[in-house]
Amino acid sequence: MIRALIVDDEIHSRDELEALLEETRSFAVVGKCENAIGALKAMKSEKPDVIFLDIQMPGISGIELLSMIDEEIMPIVVFVTAYDTYAIKAFEENAFDYLLKPVEKQRLEKTLQKIQRRLISKSVNAFTGIEIKRIPCVGSNRIKLINTSDVEFVRSDAAGIYLVCSQGEFYTELTLRVLEARTRLVRCHKQFLVNIDQADEIILQDNQSAVIHTRSRKNVQVSRRYLKKIKGKLGL
After folding, report:
1. What is the pLDDT of residue 59?
2. How far apart are CA 50 and CA 175, in angstroms?
3. Measured in whole angstroms, how far is the alpha carbon of residue 111 from the centre of its chain?
């Protein structure tokens, strides 16, 4: 069975597509999500073979969501859209296929055949990610979108990944690797990324490491491995 994840902000669209997928007897729907945060969680836990992804969603679009997925768990991507014009954009972003709403059984069967061939060939799902300008963060009862320019640094620990800003810390489902690759945040330590534009000064240590003081006087560790790179970014 092909493990499928459905991501669409409209409940009837999710349910209709789930019914069509189950009718083929080739798909096992491992999750249905209404937004990008839910999709990121589901991809980490379920690791689907294919994601059926709505392009137009409030907050974070389907195309923006793709830039937030770690390459190691990137599934086959089938965009689902109500508009022909979005299909062109989908293929510009290296989507595997697209389906127009309402999804027709015959068209879905063609997509199924393509997916089966791809899984047999085990070819890599290439994707050119766009720059992430806003990072989704999870609160107790809300999703907060943080502009990357407002981030002072990002830290990682056993509890997860946190954006640190002047107004506080915010948990995100995005990995350090994704944030490093698709934002302007710079790796300064195995567990830290830093926003160079938020740096106020760098304090050099005797052991060839350093500490960056941010504009709001927070401290960010710089390891020996990344010190030369950071000094170059700061023009030192």
Report:
1. 87
2. 20
3. 24
Same domain flag for 104 and 7: yes
Q: Which long-range contacts (CB under 8 A, 24 or more apart) does 97-105 make?
A: 99/52, 101/13, 102/16, 103/16, 103/17, 103/20, 105/20, 105/23
User: Which residue ranges of the chain lie beneath pLDDT 50?
Assistant: none
Structural domain contains residue 130: no
- Rounded distance between C-alpha atoms, residue 132 and residue 179, angstroms: 8
Report residue 10: phi and psi, to 5°: -100, 120
pTM: 0.87
- Residue 157 and residue 92 share a domain: no
- Can you give the CATH number for the domain in which 164 is found? 2.40.50.1020
For residue 24, give its domain range.
2-121
Q: What is the pLDDT of residue 21?
A: 97
Give the number of other Cβ atoms within 10 Å of residue 76's Cβ.
Answer: 21
pLDDT confidence of residue 86: 66
- What is the per-residue pLDDT for 94? 62
Closest to 102 in 3D by CA, of 34, 22, 36, 10: 10
